[in-house]
């Protein structure tokens, strides 16, 4: 389903080639000032058509706020935002009506919606639906910043090139937010340049590449979350896996933790100015589904873009016949560049949701 959240709920609607897409957000506190300029700048980081490493489809991605705000302040009642689609080339998808693009959701979407779905541009499965997600996440980001919580991300890996990682213990707000201020969000500009070259090489050979987005959070209070099925990891995972093309997610050391001994992986506790901290942060700031007060760190793996212009074998699922397919449309040779603010948005929503529902010691103390 396209509805998510406990204390902060979002419901995303629309199709990539329909009249518009949007989101209804319920549970925002009343009286939250909205910085529209900051929100527009955040949405521009994701918008298509701004860079050679992304799809040339050009959309303004300007949200029309239909409810839930008076001036620039939230009313606390449901906030609805509509983003119109302007630059659709639906003829690109004419012959795709029943020839499944390998790697995309055409075939499974056909089965799920009994052939009634709008397949143009991927319909409701399109990466375009991350525009309203980023709008909602931008509001969550502003809510978190008022509580001293900051969320930032960068491209950790792309096409075999690695960026410098976030420091899991000494991560500060400036380092966290720096990649987001550049058109190609890496910590190491030289690594970013090499990634760009690899993306361009893939594009020139009618192919695509994937990569990994690392996301960090500083200032999140200790003691927020729950055990078992409603932990911070669960909540973050449920929304991050809602981002199209995400195939993997790890927290802290993640899969690498499996190769370590307990003595290497445990994070020793100590006191710093009377506050409980850990010397290392292999846990990625979460223990038992509950925040430890250390930076929260996670990495999301994105697959290479499915829609490539090479001839591919497929099946026409209405005709039940094998055929060859050359995919048209204006596609991202690598979705990871535009997915960086999307991951920040998803994580911000998960943490705002958890903070609004916080019941525990520090979590409750920190609530205004
Ligand atoms: C920001 C963003 C942009 C995307 N752009 C494209 C694209 O141009 N072409 C494409 O085939 N897939 C693109 N995708 C991925 C598809 O939407 C996704 O692979 C598809 O819906 C199937 O879903 P799944 O990969 O999660 O199984 C994009 C994803 C994101 C997050
Ligand atoms: C429009 C956006 O991205 C689109 C995501 C997408 C897909 O299959 O996910 C396919 C492309 O759609 P089209 O073929 O209509 O150009 C991208 O342009 C956007 O992110 O705003």
From TrEMBL:
Residues the record lists as binding FMN: 124-126, 288, 303-307, 330
SUPFAM superfamilies hit by this protein: Chorismate synthase, AroC (SSF103263)
Residue ranges the record marks as coiled coil: none
Catalytic activity from the UniProt record: 5-O-(1-carboxyvinyl)-3-phosphoshikimate = chorismate + phosphate
Keywords for this protein: Amino-acid biosynthesis, Aromatic amino acid biosynthesis, FAD, Flavoprotein, FMN, Lyase, NADP
GO cellular component: cytosol
Start-end of Basic and acidic residues biased regions: 48-64
Binding residues for NADP(+): 46, 52
Residues covered by region (Disordered): 45-70
Pathway as given in its UniProt record: Metabolic intermediate biosynthesis; chorismate biosynthesis; chorismate from D-erythrose 4-phosphate and phosphoenolpyruvate: step 7/7
One record GO biological process: chorismate biosynthetic process
PROSITE patterns from the UniProt entry: CHORISMATE_SYNTHASE_1 (PS00787), CHORISMATE_SYNTHASE_3 (PS00789)
GO molecular function: chorismate synthase activity; FMN binding
EC class: lyase
Cofactor remark from the record: Reduced FMN (FMNH(2)).
InterPro entries membership: Chorismate_synth (IPR000453), Chorismate_synth_AroC_sf (IPR035904), Chorismate_synthase_CS (IPR020541)
Cofactor: FMNH2
Entry EC number(s): 4.2.3.5
Annotated Pfam families: Chorismate_synt
Complex and partners: Homotetramer.
Function of the molecule: This reaction introduces a second double bond into the aromatic ring system.
Family named by the database record: Belongs to the chorismate synthase family.
PANTHER family in the record: CHORISMATE SYNTHASE
NCBIfam families named among the record's database cross-references: aroC, PRK05382.1
Name used for this protein in its record: Chorismate synthase
């Amino acid at each position: 389903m396209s509805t998510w959240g406990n204390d902060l709920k979002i419901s995303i609607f629309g199709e990539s080639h329909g009249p518009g897409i949007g989101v209804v957000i319920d549970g925002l506190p009343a009286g939250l000032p909205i910085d529209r300029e900051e929100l527009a700048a955040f949405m521009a980081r994701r918008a298509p058509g701004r860079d050679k490493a992304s799809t040339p489809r050009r959309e303004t991605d300007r949200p029309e706020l239909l409810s839930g705000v008076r001036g620039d302040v939230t009313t606390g009642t449901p906030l609805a935002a509509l983003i119109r689609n302007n630059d659709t080339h639906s003829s690109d998808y004419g012959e795709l009506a029943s020839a499944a693009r390998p790697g995309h959701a055409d075939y499974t979407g056909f089965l799920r919606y009994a052939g009634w779905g709008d397949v143009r541009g991927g319909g409701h499965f399109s990466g375009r639906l991350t525009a309203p997600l980023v709008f909602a996440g931008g509001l969550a980001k502003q809510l978190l910043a008022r509580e001293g919580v900051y969320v930032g991300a960068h491209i950790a890996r792309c096409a075999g090139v690695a960026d410098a990682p976030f420091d899991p213990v000494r991560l500060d707000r400036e380092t966290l937010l720096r990649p987001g201020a550049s058109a190609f969000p890496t910590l190491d500009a030289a690594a970013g340049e090499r990634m760009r070259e690899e993306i361009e090489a893939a594009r020139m050979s009618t192919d695509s590449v994937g990569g990994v987005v690392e996301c960090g959070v500083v200032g999140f209070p200790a003691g927020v979350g729950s055990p078992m099925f409603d932990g911070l990891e669960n909540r973050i995972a449920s929304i991050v896996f809602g981002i199209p093309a995400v195939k993997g997610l790890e927290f802290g050391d993640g899969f690498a933790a499996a190769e370590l001994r307990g003595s290497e992986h445990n994070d020793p506790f100590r006191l710093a100015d009377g506050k409980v901290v850990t010397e290392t942060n292999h846990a990625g700031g979460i223990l038992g589904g509950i925040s430890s007060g250390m930076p929260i760190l996670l990495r999301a793996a994105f697959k290479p873009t499915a829609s490539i212009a090479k001839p591919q074998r497929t099946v026409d699922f209405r005709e039940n016949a094998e055929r060859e397919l050359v995919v048209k449309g204006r596609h991202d040779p690598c979705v990871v560049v535009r997915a960086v603010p999307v991951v920040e948005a998803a994580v911000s929503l998960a943490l705002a949701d958890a903070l609004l529902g916080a019941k525990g010691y520090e979590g409750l103390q920190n609530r205004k």
